[in-house]
Amino acid sequence: MSKEIKKWFSLNLGNKKQCACNDTKSNTTEDGFSQVFDISMNRRQAFKKITAGLLVGAGAVSTSCSVVSSGERKEKSQIEWEEYFKGNYKLMTDEEKQQTVDRLVRSYELRTGKKINISTKGAEKDVLFGYAFNISKCQGYMDCVNACVKENNQDRASEMQYIRIHEMNDGKGLNFGEADDTFYHEVPAAGHFYMGTQCFHCDNPPCIEVCPVQATWKEKDGIVVIDYDWCIGCRYCMAACPYDGRRFNWSTPQIPEQEVNKEQHYLGNRLRKKGVMEKCTFCVQRSREGKNPACVEACPTGSRIFGNLLDPTSEIRWVLANKKVFRLKEDLGTEPKFWYFMD
Amino acid sequence: MNVNYNIPVIFLILVLISCKGDHKKYHTVIDKIEAKTVPFQRDSTFSKNQFSISELITVTDANPHFYIKERKSNIKSFACSECHDRPVSQLQSHNPNTKKAHWDIKLNHADANTMSCLSCHIDNDMDNMHSITGTKIDFNKSYQICAQCHSKQAEDWKGGAHGKNISGWKTARVSKLCVECHNPHNPSFKTRWPARYNATMVDERTNQVKK
Q1: pLDDT for residue A35
Q2: ipTM
Q3: Which of A141, A276, B81, B138 has the highest Cβ tally under 10 A?
Q4: Quick one: DSSP state of residue A212?
Q5: Cross-chain CB nearest to A310 (options B38, B170, B197)
Q6: Interface mutation target, options A291, A327, A337, A339, chain B, most CBs of B under 10 Å
Q7: From residue B183, how far is each of A207, A277, B178 by CA, in Å?
């Protein structure tokens, strides 16, 4: 039954099979336009659809202007209305940023009765964040993943995780094809080593080039961020990333209310919605406050090193200067700011 | 002299205006780092919830220097001499009437040729430790004991590649001390179960294979 439903995105490439149904009309593939506009319907249906569409739009306006609906509901739809028409975060003035944050905070308060704190703190001068990962130290304990999920309010239902820990076989090199990133046995397992990947915050990120709406960009301190309210969910960036660094919300993220991290950043761990991209932001809500990302703090082995690349006294700079470092797929010219090294 | 300057001039203008965009100024990120590096002063004060300078020890033999947490106040029942009032040779008696201490400590650190209790502890001065050559080493500077054999790790630790920064990237570095991660009597990391298992990912992949 489900096969009969033609979706605009189903390309049917190489699928020349005749449809099982007897309807001869459905053999020709319709494009998105004809699917929407060439639907035969009678006058009554057409009027119904038009009215429904109008009602949705008018509903928001009428509720916000209504004299009868309760104050809270009015405020809620007022917020929704204003949020809907706000601009791209990159183009917002400080005042506009504060307004949208106030709206988001208020909207959460109306919904749950709890206060959250959303920061809009920008990049600091003379700061460029970098990360180093010691593959001889990582033991595959996965404490970083737990900390990351908790810190960044990731969807619990789909078990979204920014970090992947790959269990690699000794003697086979960095072979991601044969690596296991869903291991569950006592670690470290004999004959294996562990390697973590996440967003590498490339200095020349291919993901931001392909975004058709400029919803993702590189901040001055090197963090690649996403405006979740501007993202249209096309997933071009996901396809463009050579490192599997980006994640997509296929459903509305679900986080138990008591587990929501209330210290948030507009570009970081604030609550996302269905159909938008997200990824590691080096915990922008933490790093811009001078703290280390949650994964660095949680790692029990000290494999993870974070710091300011422009500070010659930082640990990350010491690693770059004194260790044999390498990055993944360096030949692509993406210039990741995430280095691996060994003891 | 009617030389046509048009073409050279247009060419020159093109050369001048077709400079690279601002965002592609550096060939690699390393070039960018080198060009933009500033002599940096990390904040010497710690934020409210963190450390007070009084409970920190400065590691001066590293450049730039950094801090470790004061150790003695964190050792349960320090000073050791409060119990160990006699030298080990006397305490060690196999007389069943003498009280046993540290019965749970079993040395699992290198082999017996290299390590015994007295490789680090002093027979008749329990409140201090000593190096291979007999120099007294304070418990607060216990990393100096470890650094005798693990000199490579010690160098990495001083630079910041080994160990762990616990103060954040912005303030002065406070590092974990060797013995905060490695039990000196049994220093290796132990195997254990991972903190989580991603059932959804496994499910998605196995289902995909079935199709």
Answers
A1: 59
A2: 0.84
A3: A141
A4: T
A5: B38
A6: A291
A7: 45, 43, 8
- Which residue in the set A140, A203, A287 is minimally distant from B29, CB to CB? A203
Q: What's residue A199's pLDDT?
A: 97
Q: DSSP secondary structure string, A31-93?
A: -HHHHHH-----HHHHHHHHHHHHHHHHHHHHHHH-SSS-HHHHHHHHHHHHHHT---GGG--
Cβ–Cβ gap A290/B168 under 8 Å: yes
- Provide DSSP, B161-209: SSS-B-S-SSBPPEE--HHHHSBTTB-SPPPB--S---HHHHHHHHHHH
CB contacts, 8 Å: A323 with chain B: 161
- Smallest CA-to-CA distance from B184 within B127, B109, B128 is with B109
Mean pLDDT, consecutive 10-residue segments, chain B of 211 residues?
A: 76 73 77 92 76 87 88 84 75 67 84 90 90 94 95 95 94 93 94 93 79 51
What angle do the packed helices B151-159 and A315-322 form, to 10 degrees?
130
Domains for chain A: give ranges and CATH numbers: 43-119 (no CATH), 129-341 (3.30.70.20)
Q: Judge contact between A268 and A152, C-beta under 8 A.
A: yes
Contacts 24+ apart (CB under 8 A), B45-53: B45/B171, B46/B167, B46/B171, B46/B172, B46/B174, B47/A290, B47/B168, B47/B171, B50/B167, B50/B168, B50/B171, B50/B174, B51/B167, B51/B174
**CA distance, residue B19 to nearest chain A CA (Å):** 18
Rounded Cα gap, residues B129 and A297, in angstroms = 31
Residue A284 pLDDT exceeds 60: yes
Which pLDDT belongs to residue A46? 78
